[in-house]
Amino acid sequence: MERWLIAATEPTILAIDFIALATIVIGTLIALKDGIGLLMAQREIDRHSRRHLWMRYSHWLVAGLTFQLAADIVESSITPDWDGIGRLAAVAVIRTFLNYFLERDVAELRELERARASEKPAP
Question: Where is the chain membrane-spanning (predicted)?
């Protein structure tokens, strides 16, 4: 039973790690494309546009870390050594901090957008 579990788990871990890598690479490429587009479109990039770009990119990073955390959880079930547990804890802490700051920045961005909307006169 244990050999079957290990045999089934190892390709699953690789697949989830690949998804995490692909998510981060895709998000990075999109952020790079959008950043270059922003630079080409405007001489001076306003704070709102730059922040919006980084917020979208951070969503991709959090998604990639979530997949990586899932792979580490699965891996810790077959290799319960302290190194694996330490890696799992590190990824969980990083993801928790990223989520906290992301949520804070999203709330701040929404507040800025509400303030901008209330400043514009009604047509």
Answer: 12-32
Among candidate residues 110, 108, 63, 71, the one with its CA nearest the CA of residue 87: 71
Instruction: State how far the Cα of 78 lies from the Cα of 88, in Å rounded to an integer.
Output: 13
pTM for the model stands at 0.73
Residue 1 pLDDT greater than 60, yes or no: no
73-90, pLDDT tens digit by residue? 888 877 777 887 888 788
End-to-end CA distance of the chain, in Å?
Answer: 70
Give the Cα separation of 13 and 32 in Å (integer): 28
CA 117 vs CA 40, 54, 85: distances in Å: 26, 21, 47
59 vs 62: CA distance, rounded Å: 5
